[in-house]
Amino acid sequence: MNRSTASNVRHHCKKFGQFSSRATATLVGGGRASVDQAALFNAVLVRYPDLLDTYLTAGGLCHPADNFGAVLAVAEHVNASGADFLLALAIAYEVQCRFSAQVPVMARGLNHALQLAMSVAAGAVKLLGLDAERTANAIAASAVDNVSLAALHAEPVSNWKGISPAITGMRAVYTTMLTGRGITGPKSLFEGPHGLVQLLEQPIDFRTSDRNLTAVEQTYLKQYCSLIHGQAIIDAALTIRTDNGLRGDDVARVTLEVFQGAYDIAGGGAYGDKEHPSTKEQADYNLKCLSAVALLDGAVGPEQLETEGVRRGDVQDLLARVDVKPAADLTADYPRRTAARVHVTTRDGRKFFCEESDYEGSPTRPMSWERVVDKFHWLAEPFCDAALRADIIAAVAQLDEIPIAELAGLLGVASRSALRPRGRHRF
Q1: Parallel/antiparallel/unpaired status of strands 251-258 and 340-346
Q2: Cα pseudo-dihedral 403, 385, 65, 28, rounded to 10
């Protein structure tokens, strides 16, 4: 380490309390922590229920809302306005989605947390006001040490699936603040020897001359606690159940037709067997379990995916009678559509069929503000009383006009444990 670098590190360590030991950001559910630890904690809360947004691409996907916890923490740390927070979050979305659109990340055996490291760094540097040189250092340093593997999603799916993006975001925040103090990053990350261009064997162009921030308009919102590939299937199963007055006990067999990626990740294909899910993480990545739960309970929410719910005898019995098959025509339509077909045969020989080409929350059928508010009430009701929920909704509605600390403070008042049962199975 040369004398200049050592001086930078010493300078950073002398002011370590600025972002490590001193609590400068709010934890959802109460308490405060350092900016990097708040980024970790809040990002896990966003990710873990598996009800966040998704951006789909031919070779994979990403979850842009993984940026939220980290960017929120940095925004509060620097006393940003809500408008500044929204701009930084939009930049993070754009960086993550533009990389995802070009690079078939999961098809190359990588996890989408790779581009998350870049996007969190990009959002953080905007809030920190770093110049172009330090921005480049932050993105390079954050990404080079956060190469994540798609094996994260393979069976048996672990708790780490819902935590991994938060770790990436935390490290990107920490790294960005180091580069803000003069630590340089490996700028050969993309085009240098053994950089991503060489390793991935393709060019990577972020189209930096295009300043439009429109990626958010192409994201999908989820209605159900499930990977995005299960949303249309759950919709179709619920339609068959409701329209025909069926119950789980009526069902003899179920056949699901899906696109190849859905089969590989969640249907028993390349990512592993889906016959015996026993945890929440395995269940929300399992099309057999998700369709069985939908037919049995008429809902797929947090309560259905608790360990006790996943291990129920009726759930395990019905999912054993679900068959998942890839369909060439559905594969050809992806990612323009995430269509699925559900066939149900009852014990008395009746046959029902439903095909869903899209669903509420997809870019072709956007979820309205009113429906997003309904979803918030559904999820937040056990943890926030009606008055607090109303205050949070009002703060979000006018976020570009208030300090971000106002929203963070409201989120900090929420209870860490459920105060009452959830009132509705579906929103």
Answers
A1: antiparallel
A2: 70
CA proximity to 76, closest of 130, 135, 128: 128
For residue 335, whether the previous peptide bond is cis, meaning omega lies within 30 degrees of 0, is yes
Edge to edge, the sheet with strand 322-326 lists 322-326, 251-258, 340-346, 351-356
354, β-bridge pairs = 342
Token digits of residue 162:
């819902």
User: For the segment 336-382, what is each residue's pLDDT rounded down to a tens digit?
Assistant: 889 999 999 999 999 999 999 889 999 889 999 999 999 999 999 99
Is residue 2 exposed (0-12), middle (13-18) or buried (19+ Cβ within 10 Å)?
exposed
Cα gap 424→377, rounded to integer Å: 10
pLDDT tens digits along 34-71: 999 999 999 999 999 899 999 999 888 999 999 999 99
List CB contacts of 358: < 8 A, sequence separation 6 or more. Answer: 232, 337, 338, 339, 364, 365
- The pTM of the full predicted model, rounded to 2 decimals, is 0.93
